[in-house]
Design a protein that fits this description.
Layout: H1 2-32, H2 39-47, H3 50-69, H4 74-103, H5 118-191, H6 197-212, E1 220-221, H7 222-240, E2 244-250, E3 258-259, H8 265-274, E4 282-291, E5 294-302, H9 315-328, E6 332-338, E7 342-350
Parallel strand pairs: 2-4
Antiparallel strand pairs: 1-3, 4-5, 5-7, 6-7
Helix pairs in contact: 1-2, 2-4, 3-4, 3-5, 5-6, 5-7, 5-9, 6-7, 7-8
Length: 358
């Protein structure tokens, strides 16, 4: 099958080249002749220049151009081109002499007059060489551009796959981290036989549905993300009870706004994991505001002044930074500030309603 394809390709190439040289021969015939000249005699005369034209053309397109011009060896290209032109000019002169003699039958009288001088004949030959060489270069550039585009697409496809794999890996790290903290909360309440334990299990089930299924989508609505943040805060309220003070402020926004899943929730989780004031109380302030195509997310929590451990070095926050880099690139700004008794995070996110993230 492969051999037959090669033979078919070679046959097609031979046919195209033969057709091209036939056209060149007809061009020479009409260019060299005159109105009253016999067509057969002019064609015989023109055919003497066809071999040198073919050899010169193939020398340029298969040897000189690929070996010296394309690799940008301009000095060698110039020298070999000059040599090829000089040698071909000699053969054109010899061909013109024999063509004149043989077509006239060695007779001066009655020989047909040639309307073009030797210079014009050389120009005609080199015009064919130049056109064929230009077409060869154009074909090479097109082939190179196609290969480069194909290679570029393969690289982009590979990068996209790596990006998707990395995002899935980061999500896998975030999910166990979040579940571990939630289950610890429920476990602590179950030991005390707290009456809200069953309600918390139901809320955790809702969060699990969000984590296991909704986060597989490229984007979720901002409304859903906020809903599960509220759900998570309700879980933590049952654990902290009167020791927790939460100020959650949300400005109105259109429901069509979408963001990457589990993008804001880890920030909230870190507040509960690492935040606690010197008096044992935890104060959290959350503000979400949408204006035009920008989301502003502010979160601040209290912490003990002597506490050295915080979420800045935690797995969850490091993962969320990496996810922001992968999903939003230069379309976000994340400011993290550690104050004596508070921890402050400010995320500015530019988005488009039609944007879909991997």
């Amino acid at each position: 099958m492969k051999l037959s394809s090669i033979i078919l390709g070679m046959g097609r190439k031979f046919l195209l080249h033969s057709l091209f040289w036939l056209v060149v021969l007809l061009y020479f015939t009409f260019f060299f002749g005159f109105e009253d000249s016999e067509f057969r005699k002019v064609m015989n005369f023109s055919s003497f220049f066809l071999p040198v034209t073919i050899l010169t053309t193939y020398t340029f397109i298969y040897r000189i151009i690929p070996r010296y011009l394309i690799p940008k060896k301009y000095l060698q290209f110039g020298l070999y081109s000059l040599a090829a032109l000089v040698i071909s000019a000699c053969y054109i002169t010899i061909s013109a002499f024999y063509a004149k003699v043989l077509t006239s039958g060695y007779e001066y009288q009655g020989s047909f007059p040639i309307t073009k001088s030797l210079i014009y004949i050389m120009i005609s030959v080199y015009l064919v060489v130049a056109l064929a060489s230009a077409f060869s270069l154009l074909k090479y550039n097109y082939s190179t551009a196609s290969k480069n585009e194909e290679l570029k697409n393969r690289i982009l496809e590979a990068q996209l796959k790596l990006k998707e794999q990395e995002l899935q890996y980061l999500k896998m790290q975030i999910h166990p981290h979040f579940l571990f903290n939630s289950l610890n909360t429920i476990y602590g309440l179950s030991l005390a036989n707290h009456h809200t334990t069953s309600e918390m299990i139901l809320q955790l089930s809702d969060l699990l549905d969000y984590i296991l299924y909704q986060t597989k989508k490229p984007v979720v609505s901002l409304k859903d993300e906020i809903k599960h943040i509220t759900n998570y805060i309700d879980l933590e309220k049952k654990r902290f009870q009167e020791l927790l003070i939460v100020d959650f402020e949300i400005e109105e926004f259109i429901e069509e706004i979408q963001i990457a899943p589990m993008l804001l929730l880890p920030f909230v989780e870190n507040c509960f994991k690492h935040g606690r004031g010197a008096d044992g109380k935890l104060e959290i302030s959350i503000k979400i505001k949408v204006k035009n195509d920008q989301l502003m997310f502010l979160i601040e929590n209290s912490k003990a002044q002597l506490s050295a451990e915080h979420s800045e070095n935690g797995i969850g926050l490091e993962n969320i930074k990496r996810r922001l880099d992968l999903l939003y690139e230069n379309n976000y700004q994340l400011d993290i500030e550690t104050r004596p008794d508070h921890y402050y995070v400010r995320l500015m996110l530019k988005f488009s309603k039609n944007t879909v993230y991997a």
